[in-house]
Amino acid sequence: MNRATVGQLALLLVGLGLLVASGSIDPSPGGLTVSLDEEPRASVPEGASVVAFEDLLPATQDAFQRAFDGGDGGAFDGDDRTARLPADTDTERLASYDYVRYRGRYYGFSVISVDNVGSGGTFLAVALGIGAIAAVGLWRLTGTDEVSRDGPPPPEP
How far, in Å, CA of 98 to CA of 108, rounded? Predict the structure, then answer.
């Protein structure tokens, strides 16, 4: 296999990889996600900071409720204990707590900032993938199978 064919194959694989990867890009805007870290506990370690569910803002309570109920898909596929938080969540205050007390049980949690690429990133990945595959097709159509080390051939007389 000559160098041109190897280059074409590599470019084709890059293009296909970009097209496949673009299907997994989440085009939704970024945001905050709450993720329950563990199973509920009956007690917490000494010195742990706890916030009562009732003391959370209503929109934040809704997000925690979705996580308690099995999640809303959140930011991480397959993780059934995540839920998106509202954009106006006071993350500094929330991050100062280790556990939330809900119905007599304690839940450890993490607040995760999710930075999705948006639809522009998805479009870019698709465009680059199609462009790479088109470049391979044009390269093959021009019949340039050998990479010349001497530059282009001299013009014919």
Answer: 6
pLDDT in tens, 58-71: 888 888 888 888 75
Q: What is the pLDDT of residues 14-45, one digit of tens each?
A: 777 766 666 655 544 445 677 787 778 899 99
| Cα 121 to Cα 29, 44, 68, 124, distances in angstroms | 11, 42, 32, 5
Give CA–CA dist 83/71, Å, rounded.
Answer: 5
Q: Phi and psi dihedrals of 35, rounded to 5? A: -130, 125
How do the domains of the chain map onto residue ranges? 3-24+118-141, 31-114
Find out whether 98 and 50 touch, Cβ atoms under 8 Å. Answer: yes
CA torsion sign for 65, 110, 85, 43 is positive
Of 84, 107, 93, the residue nearest 34 (C-alpha): 84
